[in-house]
Structure formats: structure tokens, C-alpha cells
Amino acid sequence: MIGKRAPSQTIAIAGAGLIGLSCALELSARGHDITLFDPRPAEMSTGWAAAGMIAPAYELMLQPGPVDNAFAAFCFESARLWSSFAKLIKLQTGSPVALSKAPTLALARNTQEQARLDALADLLRDLGHACQRVSDRTLQNQHGISSSVLNGLRLPEDTHVDNRRVIGAVRRYFSVEGRVIASAVSTRSEMEALSDKTFDAIIWARGTAETGSKTEVKGQAISLSPVPGQPSNVLRFGARYIVPKADRTIIGATTEPDFIGKGIDPSVADLLHEEAARVLPQLASADRLEHWAGFRPLGSAERPFIGPKAGREFIATAHYRNGVLLAPATAKLIADQVEGLNYESAYNVFAPAPGHGATA
Predict the structure, then answer these.
(1) Nearest to 316 by CA among 55, 326, 75, 62
(2) Please, which residues have CB within 8 angstroms of residue 189's CB and are 6 or more apart in sequence?
(3) Radius of gyration, alpha carbons of the chain
(4) Across the chain, which distance is largest between two alpha carbons, in Å?
(5) 224, 137: one domain
(6) Do 85 and 224 lie in a common domain?
(7) Which single residue of 14, 16, 72, 107 has CA 20 to 30 Å from 66?
(8) Are residues 86 and 120 in the same domain?
(9) Shared domain check, 205 and 76
(10) Which positions fall inside the FAD dependent oxidoreductase domain (predicted)?
(11) 3-state class of 222 per DSSP?
């Protein structure tokens, strides 16, 4: 991912969640001096609450309105970048991040979902991306899927990574080097006073603080104990997913734009577990390990804000449900912009409108 080496800069990043850390790692690997600011522990970040899906194909089906070619291209580019990004994380931190190569299986539980998968298959072929039909018998015999599932679609470009390993490894790397300052900041002068540095560039990556609207969408998820013999593939069905990890299986997620309160609802955990077990019956006996709520920053039309502001300041936020997917491409795009390198002009659509950000 590392591009042409540019003169070293001293750069501050407000926000040490997945997006801020990804930008920090990319810029540090390019030879820049990075300082991160975040008062929260890693476990409080939006990326920690995610399931780790890298899903450019399935995301096409979830997007509102007609296909946005720039956004689709950005999603598929970022999915391709994950292999080199995972290698960079291991090279810099010494920690592997469990990037899976197993393709996602998108499942149809009824005729409506089957029609949506048919439309997705046609769209992927039109865009030049692969997918393969999977029969109900194959799903049952090879993956243990319930006989109630009609059929499926194999999505080879949709995979997953252990997002908590990513965040933990990169956060530890910068913390050990003394480059994470546990303070909330909202201005350049605060950053420079706390760090005793003069910054050439500032990157704001604090979630809703940068969106202008402060809109969040709540999502509840659970994790279960791993079950012997369960498939290594991510399973997608409607708005739900089953994501296998080495030490847990994640089931999610609700979408609650008009939530009241940030707590969890025990009945939601029961619902998620029951829905997952109807698709993958062996999960019925799995122990429930965790139940949590995450809060996804939402931008206009579900698009991220990535790009420059005035005065050598940049924004990288509002990735909504695609923070994990878009982390490598966001880091590369921000790094290219900070260094003044050429980048895909179509990605200018992600640039923040005037007035967004901490210093607006």
C-alpha cells in the first residue's frame, strides 16, 4: 500500500479507532511522524463493536437508491487492499490479524430474498465481479445450513478479518511508542499544546464529531461460543449475519436509527440467537458469550466523508457499516492527499462539505 516516499511530515490524528489507526499506520509506514489523540480505550471504539466483514459485493444490495459507481469502486478497491494491509499490520506490529480467504455465502430464506440475490448476481456480472450459485443441497451437505434455506450465492470477494485483533495490534504499536495521547481535542492548538509539537497536517477521525449532523445508528449484536463443524464462511441473510472467529461467533445486527438509550435489550439477544439457529441449526446449543451495542456514524446517503478541509486539515469519518471494509482504501486515500499525490478523481465525491469538522 505504501506509495512514493514524500518528505516527512509531523501529523496529528484525532481519533484512535479503526479509521484513525489505519491512517496512522499507513502514514507512519510512509515515514511520517504520527501522534494520535483519543480519550477512549480501544474497546469503546465503533470498530471494536463491528463484526469484521469485508463485504463489497453484499454491500451493493444494501445500498439505498441506484448503484453509485464511485462508491462501489472504492469498496472493491479496499477489499483488494486488505491483503497487503494485513501484511503491513503484521510487519509493523508483529501481530497477525486473522484475515480469512473463505468466501461469504449469501442465503435466500424466502422468494423475496431469492429475487434480491438474483438481482445482485446480475449486477455483479455487469460490473465484472464473480459470484456463483449454490444449491440448497450443497448448502446442507457441505456447510450444515438448514433445509429451510432455498439456495445461496457464493461471493468470493467478500471475506472477513478479526477487527479486534487489528485495532488491538495497531493501538498497542502506537501506544508503546508513546504516540497515543489519551485526551479529547477539538483544535490544532490543543493538540500542539498537549504534544509539544507543531503539526504539518491534522486528520479528524472521531466519528460523528466530524459528520456535521452527529447522526448515529445503533446496532446490537451477540457472540456465541464456537461450535465444532460450523462453516468458516460468513453467512449473510437479509440484514443479518453470522461471522465465525477463532474464539467466538458473531451474530448481528439490528439497525436502530431512532433508538432511545444506549443500553442493550435482552430480548434482542434472544431474537438474534433464534434467527441464526434457524439458518445454522448447530448454533442452537452454543453458549452466549457477549451482548453489546455499537453506534455507527452516518453520513449523507450512507457515504463516508474523506478528504481535505482548509488549512492542511483532513476528515475521515462516517463509514457507517463499512468501517472495516473501507479502512485500507481510506488510509491510502488520506495518505495520498496529505502527501499531495495523484489519486482517483472520482473519489472527490467523498470530500466533506464546507462547515464539517471540529474546527468548523
Answers:
(1) 326
(2) none
(3) 20
(4) 64
(5) yes
(6) no
(7) 107
(8) no
(9) yes
(10) 11-336
(11) strand
* Residue 198 grid cell: 507543531
Per-residue pLDDT of the chain (360 residues; tens, 9 = 90+): 554 567 899 999 999 999 999 999 999 999 999 999 999 999 999 999 999 999 999 999 998 888 899 999 999 999 999 999 999 999 999 999 999 999 999 999 999 999 999 999 999 999 999 999 999 999 999 999 999 999 999 999 999 999 999 999 999 999 998 999 999 999 999 999 999 999 999 999 998 777 666 689 999 999 999 998 899 999 999 999 999 999 999 999 999 999 999 999 999 999 999 999 999 999 999 999 999 999 998 888 888 999 998 889 999 999 999 999 999 999 999 999 999 999 988 898 898 866 544 433
Say how many domains are in the chain.
2
Phi, psi (deg, nearest 5) at residue 34: -110, 135
Domain contains 358: no
Residue type, 52: G
The rounded distance, in Å, linking the Cα atoms of 191 and 201 is: 11
Residue 187: domain span: 10-90+162-213+300-350
Beta bridge partners of 53: 160
Query: Contact, 159 vs 243, CB < 8 A?
Result: no
Q: Using CA atoms, how far apart are residues 62 and 57, in angstroms rounded to an integer?
A: 10
DSSP string, 56-93: HHHHHHHSSSS--HHHHHHHHHHHHHHHHHHHHHHHHH
Check whether residue 21 and residue 152 sit in a common domain.
no
Check whether residue 190 and residue 276 sit in a common domain. Answer: no
SS (H, E, C) 240-277: EEEEECCCCEEEECCCECCCCCCCCCHHHHHHHHHHHH
Are 81 and 175 members of one domain? yes
Inter-residue contact 304 to 326 (CB < 8 Å)? yes
CATH number, domain of 109, equals 3.30.9.10
Check if the beta carbon of residue 300 is closer than 8 Å to that of residue 259: no
